[in-house]
Write a structure and sequence with these properties.
Layout (H helix, E strand, L loop, with lengths): L2 H15 L1 H11 L5 H32 L4 H21 L14 H10 L2 H13 L3 H23 L1 H40 L1
Family: Belongs to the UPF0056 (MarC) family.
Membrane topology: Multi-pass membrane protein
InterPro entries: Multi_antbiot-R_MarC
Amino acid sequence: MDIAAYLNALIALFVIIDPIGAALIFHSLVPPDDMAHRFKMALKAGVISFALLVLFGNFGEPLLHKLGISIDALRISGGILLFYTAFNMITKDMEYTTTTERKDIAVFPMSIPLMAGPGSLTLAILLYSKGEASASNMAVTLAILSITVSTFLLMMLSRYVKRIIGRTGDDILRRFLGVILAALAIQFVHDGVVNMSV
């Protein structure tokens, strides 16, 4: 396995998916005492997100080629989209309100757009497109699995995460990750422009 590709994918996915922030949002959307419902929603969201990221990452590029879109054009548009996501992470405030309503939140909003939204799906294509060897693609798949499993675990432990990190800690973490994501987005745009001009 390509360790460098794994770490690169893991860090990029961690930044854009933000498992801690996702866990705090999850906590506000499900009843805190209904453990069976919490487990079901967290597992379903994790499985759906993993499947979407791997499938779109592997087959999104051929689909784009059929539509006449190059991977470098995707790098530029994806970079702009990631930068928009990063800008929102840095500048917008999020509201968390506890609910007692038992509803299915696995697909929306947990999987789409929080875990497998436009930014992370675009990132998955870019990560898989970088890897020429099967070892590199395996590393990206393992990184996606690692992030979805860690997000699942944090969602199951979200009441403790909220107690430990608090609102202020989440705000600080989200804005710091937003700055990292903005830098990653600019790098994607730079790579796309350089490759298109060659």
